[in-house]
Amino acid sequence: MRYPVGMNENVSPVENLPLLVRFKRYLRQLAFRVALYLLVYLVASILTIGPCFWYWFEATYVNGPRWIAKFYAPLLWLCDHFWPLSWLVNHYVNWWIL
Prior knowledge:
Blueprint: H1 13-16, H2 19-49, H3 53-61, H4 66-81, H5 83-97
Helix pairs in contact: 3-4, 4-5
């Protein structure tokens, strides 16, 4: 197998890249993963708040399990600061509890 000039079979192509280029690639991949994880959390929390609303209500206002309140705390913060999401979540919860 022929390798490009300056490369041999013992060195992978990633190791030949300068440190700054590898660091920028790592930061780009990290930003993509964090954004993906946040999107998955947002979708999961929105989809589960409807059927779990009364569990969340108990955890927040009545002495229920704290982990449920902590799980939905970022969604509550987003709903307080972003009114279209608040409208969407309120209608979704109302659809489940009414």
